[in-house]
Amino acid sequence: MATNPIFREYIGGKPYPDDLNDFPDIINTKLDEFHFLLASAVEEYDSNGKGTGIFRQNWNERYFGAEHIKELKRKYRYENVKVKVMISIGGRGNAFDPAEKEVWPDRARDSLEKIIQHYQRLDAIIDGIDINYEVVKTNETDFAHCIGSVIDALKNKDKVINEVSIAPSKNTQSHYLKLYRAHQKDVRLVDYQFYDQSVPSAADFVALFRQLSDEYQENILLAGFSTDPDDSGKLSREVFIEAATDLINTGSLRGIFVWDANDSAAADDPFFFEIKAQDLLVGSDSK
């Protein structure tokens, strides 16, 4: 089994299926931590398609609002697993491309803080934020400065969150690595999107993981799989499971995350991968 295993699930980013109207009961209590990541706090863009730094929540509060968060945490209060809820920032397909990089950090901090404090006022705890821009149109320095300023404000100055994760991919790796190196003390987890590039074999997957481990700390690097049909063809379920098993057996892989619960719930075998991956992490897979 993995050491202090963590599993993370993105949720709320799509309107389907109709019966996914709450956090699904898929948590393996042998885990050290299980995180739901609300998808997403989405930025508003101006008439030129540039980011304003003003964020709004994209998930349906009727299904994933304060009462649901409180109930989720109450349910697992006396279990060994720590259940947390994060807000993912950026969103699939949305670009980081500020209209005014000088004022973007302050606007982003203010608007994100309003979203987080809305839940806090209702006694629902938001544990952290996840930086998940899949498209970045600025240079590495501007990205690291703008996002880093928001992280520093929310976590260290205003103290409205406790932890931060980042979600790099092949196309954004240089930007996130610059951000990570500037704010290493603040970044607790790195959710690398293995599913966003061609990984034809388990050996290729393991080699990529080893490469990334040299750039980030191995014990904070999580491997990502997507159940979104739009991501099919780049990384198969079989390759991921084989590679993850090898990495767990060598004590290298601490955690797995999945994009996303909405597509998993709508699949012919709902949440099969989530259950399988958690079993692998805790050492109870039936093979």
Describe the protein's architecture and organization.
There is one protein chain. The mean pLDDT is 96. Helix 4 (140-157) crosses helix 5 and helix 7 runs parallel beside helix 9. The chain has helices at residues 61-64, 66-75, 104-121, 140-157, 173-182, 202-215, 237-249, 261-266, 272-282, and strands spanning 6-11, 33-45, 51-57, 82-96, 128-136, 163-166, 187-192, 221-226, 255-259. It is globular. It is 36% helix and 25% strand. An 8-stranded parallel β-barrel has the order 1-2-4-5-6-7-8-9, surrounded by 6 helices. Strand 4 (82-96), helix 3 (104-121) and strand 5 (128-136) form a beta-alpha-beta unit. The protein has 287 residues and is an alpha/beta fold.
Major pleated sheet: 8 strands, parallel, barrel
Q: What fraction of residues sit in β-strands? A: 15-25%
Helix content: 25-40%
Spatial strand order of the main sheet? 1-2-4-5-6-7-8-9
The Cα radius of gyration reads 18 Å
